[in-house]
Amino acid sequence: MWAVELNGVSKSYWMEQVRVPALAEVSLNISAARFTVLSGQSGSGKTTLLNLIGGIDRADAGKIMVADQDLGCLSDDARSDFRARHIGFIFQNFNLMPVLSAFENVEYPLQLQGVPARRRRERVLEMLAAVGLADKAANRPGQLSGGQRQRVAIARALVHEPALVLADEPTANLDSHTGASILALLRQLQRERRVAVVFSSHDPQVIAAADDRYQVSDGRVGALNAEEAL
Ligand SMILES: Nc1ncnc2c1ncn2[C@@H]1O[C@H](COP(=O)(O)OP(=O)(O)OP(=O)(O)O)[C@@H](O)[C@H]1O
């Protein structure tokens, strides 16, 4: 079963009158309930690929299926709704709302979906406990360490039980020890909850931990075996 199917997907950006190709005819299937790593140098196209899979941006050509939904068939509003229901996001810079507490940040995806308050509370407390932050629910992001902020972001990405989590270099801004603990936590939660995680990184530890590995290079994507990667 596939969480994501890409067929002939291309994307360019325009800077003034100049076309900047970012992805060229990418065809790729990402398995459900597995941990997939996209590696590749800076500028190779990893973020562009994650933004297309996540429905944040639209492809110029090709077809993108996520959890059996063709994203190209959806209006912008329907795509936002689909994203809110079925996808979780984790970013390099955490992207937490600074004025909200850890509890409120994790609660936000459930509020968007109109989940009743009592159920929201149960889900948020369960997720904060699962990421080891049961005692930090009232803290704002500014009162948390980088690793703790990323744990809040992981709880937020999983709280609505998405089919797919997209993590764009989530350990890049953390020291290696904290990054390793975030990787281990995400790997554990991915296995327990049987969610597909797509993690972009050039960290050999992350590549080694993956079930499936792909190399993004100049806007093209190829399978990478473990020996090549390390
Ligand atoms: N908004 C944009 N406008 C113009 N060009 C862009 C834009 N976003 C990305 N690009 C270009 O598209 C190509 C792919 O960029 P992308 O951000 O996807 O790479 P990346 O592998 O995620 O890099 P990094 O690891 O540095 O984030 C690069 O040549 C980049 O300069």
UniProtKB/TrEMBL annotation:
UniProt-listed SUPFAM superfamilies: P-loop containing nucleoside triphosphate hydrolases
Domain of life of the organism encoding this protein: Bacteria
Record-given protein name: ABC transporter ATP-binding protein
GO molecular function: ATP binding
Gene3D superfamilies associated with the record: P-loop containing nucleotide triphosphate hydrolases
InterPro entries membership: AAA+_ATPase, ABC_transporter-like_ATP-bd, ABC_transporter-like_CS, ABC_transpr_LolD-like, MacB-like_ATP-bd, P-loop_NTPase
Record keywords, A-Z: ATP-binding, Cell membrane, Membrane, Nucleotide-binding, Transport
Residues of the ABC transporter domain: 4-230
